[in-house]
């Protein structure tokens, strides 16, 4: 039996970000130094995104992204341009496993709202390039502002008021992207990783929540944010344990949150990190209780250039199919190649080899629904 998907996530898919070309990195420095205008920088970004989209098509992908080429961060760029939110310099960067990011954070300084967000224009540019392919756009989950942002208690003394405003902002954002033509939107969310380890659970307690209370909050944030989405719009979620210069911040399987992630979230698909032992086994997938939920297995790592043995990837797909039917399984890299502008430690050619690897294996196994 042949299995095809007419909308995302696709049997061969990807998370979204790609390594920034040197030309973009150089142009951003020139712009920061005042040597080129914002318009000149955007023209360079336009040209490089156009090349990127063509490369994605040539590699065999059905969904194409702009590679997040206009962003420094996968999340801060979007969140800091919401009304009531700003980017600020912190005392230190985020600690990954041996490396540290730039010292930036986000804080809520006013009432939240969504209007005239610059990324709507970014999406429209991608949309025009997509042609007969599908333009996929990625934004951070509402949980990233709720759990990772700093909230001024003078602005929001009541947690529930903040939470309700945040959901309303995302409902407006989703409708705005839809009106701009978007039919495939992805919510990126590293916050779920706090449930996966003891270290994360200590962070939960430090913020004054119980595990069950936070699971309910996270789930509600997603489900209510997407509750009004048009029927012909696909919304997926990517769950990650951190991705910066080929490093990570968290470890642990999905077990502690699996009933919520796989059984209660109402997204159309889940992009899941499964590229090494840090992500645990496939047993949590037993909580998948919907035949229309696509499970995108991130079995190909974006952190290093060496290609995985296709036989091993097929065996792992077979293991996952013990819990989820094969026609609900897709394949992708476990994360983007450049969650921040610095990028992971592999070459552009290795990046494209990884994408072609995903497409090749998916075409052989998943599109034919045969293992």
From TrEMBL:
<dbReference type="InterPro" id="IPR038071">
    <property type="entry name" value="UROD/MetE-like_sf"/>
</dbReference>
<dbReference type="GO" id="GO:0003871">
    <property type="term" value="F:5-methyltetrahydropteroyltriglutamate-homocysteine S-methyltransferase activity"/>
</dbReference>
<protein>
    <submittedName>
        <fullName>5-methyltetrahydropteroyltriglutamate--homocysteine methyltransferase</fullName>
        <ecNumber>2.1.1.14</ecNumber>
    </submittedName>
</protein>
<dbReference type="GO" id="GO:0009086">
    <property type="term" value="P:methionine biosynthetic process"/>
</dbReference>
<dbReference type="Pfam" id="PF01717">
    <property type="entry name" value="Meth_synt_2"/>
</dbReference>
<dbReference type="InterPro" id="IPR002629">
    <property type="entry name" value="Met_Synth_C/arc"/>
</dbReference>
<keyword id="KW-0489">Methyltransferase</keyword>
<feature type="domain" description="Cobalamin-independent methionine synthase MetE C-terminal/archaeal">
    <location>
        <begin position="15"/>
        <end position="341"/>
    </location>
</feature>
<keyword id="KW-0808">Transferase</keyword>
<dbReference type="GO" id="GO:0008270">
    <property type="term" value="F:zinc ion binding"/>
</dbReference>
<dbReference type="GO" id="GO:0032259">
    <property type="term" value="P:methylation"/>
</dbReference>
